[in-house]
């Protein structure tokens, strides 16, 4: 078989899953994939690699490389490497990202750019898949086109080798039709066809299906709307192209523990882990605010956890207990929830390089596994839906699952699965005859990830304490039954602090009312770019709507202490653009900001209220943060262009374009610096 090297750089497992899919499909097209994590540099050598290279790279945070890719990128960014270091290398790269973040697919772009700089050449165009609209919209056609591109590459390579023959042989070849050329022309035509709309073939399939089912079509076209569980023509009558069945590879046994000690610690990729008590919890918003925002204070005084303003950290959280119980009930495993989970690789599996999931600890109970180890809220991928098909008994339900994972059903998958945030439990409730084995769920459910939060305090201002804030996420799920769901982590935290929660008065409870402080587990997640300038005289502009204000409270607290310690020091101006809906409902840290303004720590405070109506004859206030920036664009441009200031942007959908849209492109290009923190605090 024709071999190619397949590397993946993953943070949450998506890049790995896609690379494994490529590896499994390769055999059917006559290729053999040599699959490795990009961090396993001892298993491959790009300096001597002669086979084509395929790379799948994810992006984490605000454009950061996955941890698994850092060593690789550091090695290839060695400035002593010659420009032809990879001149022998041909590659194709697929980048994964989310366009809601500023530096979309930046992990893939960094590697792609550096490979080009070192002389590597693409045999296949780079793909950028967007998780915001659905990775599969790019991933599936990119993989489909990969085989033709690889075939073309191997044919060209073979043709070049044959060109090394004698002149006589070359002359003879010119008088005949070269089979390599013929095959190459065929491959090129197939590559072209991959980018064409196959609507004519689909139309033919629909017509053929209509001819077979003409007598039934009238009833099928009854007036009803499509849903998660049913489709309408033409999809309901179409011939389907469904993905290949992923090979099963896990064998699961549930054993009674008989009093044996079981693991109660989730396996995390982050280290170290700190177990810290919650010393205070305050509701920052009024009860009639649209969103409820909480501040939590952690006592880190008995640990060596340290942080700087602008840093972030991870909270290790569990799944909802009620959802875990419902899932156990649906799987008919409630009476075995305390059994120990024992995993093995199936002896007859066809999965290449099958390995036990590293995020599942040994000797843990089924209850613990579903609570702390697996992301049961994850939106099922099409490969998961395809696997569920073979464990569904009802014919209509089986057909609908086939539609949802098919190429023809892409729109329905987007609407009823991805956009509706359907999860495994939703699917099992929607398709009652679907009874998957536990091993299948462990193969397809991703690892439960820790949730990142921005530090909202300074250790100089609050020694031994760490603050963070978040909105309690609530959303309606109507995939099967209409229900109000809360964010996995924010919902858990809100429940956890109910006994110690204070209203927005900053008053402490009386000693008699003091409740037992709950503990949570956290880990550091330091950033190297979202810190205050080393030179305190540099002016800074902070843009933080909503909970995006979190790191800037830490900045202001830190600056206040620095000015106390260095009263004769020179400190630059600090601007803050903050926005919320209502002045009297969700104006976060109002009193603190007034204090910083009064003390001269904060030199300019510009607040926008998007839902409040203007009062009296006063000038209409800026409605949104970007409106406020536009009103003060001259001052902002001066800070950037003339004073070499820094702009910091933080929010749920942090985007540099908000600033660029106000005519500040020149400021961004010719002076100053913009730094974005895209820590999602609402999941």
Automatic annotation (TrEMBL):
Domain of life of the organism encoding this protein: Eukaryota
Keyword Transcription: no
Residue ranges occupied by any Flavodoxin-like domain in the UniProt entry: 4-147
Cofactor(s) in the UniProt record: FMN; FAD
Pfam family, one: Flavodoxin_1
EC number of the protein: 1.16.1.8
Keywords, in A-Z order: Amino-acid biosynthesis, FAD, Flavoprotein, FMN, Methionine biosynthesis, NADP, Oxidoreductase, S-adenosyl-L-methionine
GO terms, molecular function: [methionine synthase] reductase (NADPH) activity; flavin adenine dinucleotide binding; FMN binding
PANTHER family per the UniProt record, alphabetical: METHIONINE SYNTHASE REDUCTASE, NITRIC OXIDE SYNTHASE-RELATED
Protein name: Methionine synthase reductase
Source species of the chain: Physeter macrocephalus
Gene: MTRR
């Amino acid at each position: 078989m024709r071999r190619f090297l397949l590397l993946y750089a993953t943070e949450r497992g998506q890049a790995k899953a896609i690379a494994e899919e490529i590896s499994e499909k390769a055999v059917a097209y006559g290729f053999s994939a040599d699959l490795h994590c990009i961090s396993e540099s001892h298993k491959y050598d790009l300096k001597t690699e002669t086979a084509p290279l395929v790379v799948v790279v994810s992006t984490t945070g605000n454009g950061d490389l996955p941890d698994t890719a850092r060593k690789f990128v550091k090695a290839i960014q060695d400035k002593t490497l010659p420009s032809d270091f990879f001149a022998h290398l041909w590659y194709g790269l697929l980048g994964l990202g989310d366009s809601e973040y500023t530096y979309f697919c930046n992990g893939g772009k960094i590697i792609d750019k550096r490979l080009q700089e070192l002389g590597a050449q693409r045999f296949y165009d780079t793909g950028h898949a967007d998780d915001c609209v659905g990775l599969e919209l790019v991933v599936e056609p990119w993989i489909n086109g990969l085989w033709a591109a690889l075939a073309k590459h191997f044919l060209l390579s073979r043709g070049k080798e044959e060109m090394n023959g004698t002149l006589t042989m070359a002359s003879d070849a010119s008088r005949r039709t070269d089979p390599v050329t013929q095959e190459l022309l065929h491959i090129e035509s197939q590559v072209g066809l991959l980018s064409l709309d196959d609507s004519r073939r689909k139309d033919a399939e629909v017509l053929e299906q209509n001819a077979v089912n003409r007598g039934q079509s009238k009833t099928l076209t009854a007036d009803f709307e499509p849903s998660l569980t049913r489709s309408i023509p033409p999809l309901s009558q179409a011939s389907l192209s469904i993905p290949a069945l992923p090979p099963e590879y896990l064998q699961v046994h549930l054993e009674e523990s008989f009093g044996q000690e079981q693991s109660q610690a989730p396996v995390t990729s982050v280290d170290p882990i700190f177990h810290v008590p919650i010393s205070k919890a305050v509701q920052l918003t009024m009860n009639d605010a649209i969103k409820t925002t909480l501040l939590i204070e952690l006592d880190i005084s008995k640990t060596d956890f340290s942080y700087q303003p602008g840093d972030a950290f991870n909270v290790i959280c569990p799944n909802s207990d009620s959802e875990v119980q419902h899932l156990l009930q649906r799987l008919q495993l409630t009476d075995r929830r305390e059994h120990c989970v024992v995993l093995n690789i199936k002896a007859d599996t066809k999965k290449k390089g099958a390995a036990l999931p590293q995020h599942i600890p040994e000797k843990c109970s089924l209850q613990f596994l579903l609570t702390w180890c697996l992301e049961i809220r994850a939106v099922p991928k099409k490969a998961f839906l395809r696997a569920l098909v073979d464990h569904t008994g009802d014919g209509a339900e089986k057909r609908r699952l086939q539609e949802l994972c098919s190429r023809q059903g892409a729109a329905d998958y987007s609407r009823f699965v991805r956009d509706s945030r359907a999860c495994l439990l939703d699917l099992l409730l929607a398709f009652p005859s679907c009874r998957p084995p536990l091993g299948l769920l462990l193969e397809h459910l991703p690892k439960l990830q820790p949730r990142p939060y921005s530090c909202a305090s300074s250790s100089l201002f609050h020694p031994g304490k760490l603050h963070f804030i978040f909105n309690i996420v609530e959303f309606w799920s109507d995939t099967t039954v209409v229900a109000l769901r809360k964010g996995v982590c924010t919902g858990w935290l809100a429940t956890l602090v109910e006994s110690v929660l204070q209203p927005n008065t900053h008053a402490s409870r009386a000693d008699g009312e003091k409740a037992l402080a709950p503990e949570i587990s956290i880990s550091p997640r330091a950033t190297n770019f979202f810190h205050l300038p080393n030179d305190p005289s540099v002016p800074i502009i902070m843009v933080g709507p909503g909970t995006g204000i979190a790191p800037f409270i830490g900045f202001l607290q830190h600056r206040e202490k620095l000015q106390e310690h260095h009263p004769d020091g020179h400190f630059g101006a600090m601007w803050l653009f903050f926005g919320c809906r209502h002045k009297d409902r969700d104006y976060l840290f109002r009193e603190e900001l007034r204090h910083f303004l009064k003390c001269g720590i904060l030199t300019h405070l510009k607040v926008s209220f998007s839902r409040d109506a203007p009062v009296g004859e006063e000038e209409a206030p800026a409605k949104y943060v970007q409106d406020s920036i536009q009103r003060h664009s001259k001052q902002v441009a001066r800070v950037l262009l003339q004073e070499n200031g820094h702009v910091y942007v933080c929010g749920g959908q942090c985007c540099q374009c908000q600033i660029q849209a106000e005519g500040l492109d020149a400021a961004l290009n010719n002076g100053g610096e913009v730094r974005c923190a895209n820590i999602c605090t609402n999941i």
